[in-house]
């Protein structure tokens, strides 16, 4: 690409505005288009940068005359504008793909259905503690393009969703991490799990002998897909059950990382508890050792890391009842891990926008752990059908305040009220952060 190209950016959120800033910095003719209204905070950035934009609709003729279109991840490929662009052979790429060509730094990319935010944040924590010049961006916090528009860095730790991966073609991460693949976002993938899984595997598409691929060997889908790909890169599987051939594994209440000399650590010293977090710690520790960060520094980082907001976040204990915010759990598998980590009987707050959920995977865990269910959503029929014969007490609510009040009323001393929705938030909330923040505010108001 060169500075004479016209670029249109579809979607004026965090990703789109970051791409617009970076494109402006590199001399492109930039036009931003959003079918909805643009939030004031993003509009002020576009105004300040003197970037042309429209809202409330798309100027098809202007956009389709572009040399390239950068599509925000929330916009499905099936929308009319994108389909016309593809038909007209206008390249449509993600903000990640666009930004990657403008950095001399190395990319550490993390994806998976669950655990990617925690793992990306933990890798970033290890790298910062190890003295590396790194920033955290992507699907967590600031956009990659927005960060890069400010300044280049030696390393970018990027959390990637499947939607972002779908628009990536040439990007080559130095380290790629794949945590797991379980059903999620199937509404965007023709309700075909294999299409969704293939999207996740796009993180490996350009890896060569100079790159590294860290992956969960215990995940049968990943193992099957990886074996079929026959990748020619440095492979780093990790496991909670296998030891032979693993770059990292758990055995006898200890984790071992076999990269650049062996690192051993008791699981009781890990900051993050639960089997899923042991996987997150293994993947992060492997990444740290690939980057040649000292064993002592990696070990210390794994022991003092503080988990991300809205992911199994302890809010308060009120009269012996604990409240935990896991609003980021937007699919069934993530909620399974949350329930698995609960040590006490749990009043479970669940619900929202269903993404094709199959709740049968939760039945055994709910029977063991859950004393009552509080539905938080506009349409709770599938939840009621799934658990009415398993849990005696199920109530329906339509606000965080109401859900927390019921939780406080229903829970007994020593129990935990867990917000782990297994659903998207858009029926009642702006996003999962808004849902989690409203939950926390309601708890603190008790």
How does this model look, in words?
- The chain is of the alpha/beta class and 446 residues long.
- The chain has 3 domains: 6-93, Rossmann fold, CATH 3.40.50.720; 97-304, Mur-like, catalytic domain (UDP-N-acetylmuramoyl-L-alanine:D-glutamate ligase, 3-Layer(aba) Sandwich); 313-444, Protein-Tyrosine Phosphatase, Chain A (Alpha-Beta Complex), CATH 3.90.190.
- Helices cover 36% and strands 22% of the residues.
- The strands form 3 sheets. The chain has a 9-stranded mixed beta sheet with strand order 7-8-6-9-10-11-12-13-14, with helices on both faces. Strands 15-16-20-17-18-19 form a 6-stranded mixed beta sheet, with helices on both faces. Strands 3-2-1-4-5 form a 5-stranded parallel beta sheet.
- Helix 15 links the parallel strand 18 (370-376) and strand 19.
- Helix 1 (14-25) packs parallel to helix 7 (144-150).
- It starts with 5 loop residues before the first strand and ends with a helix.
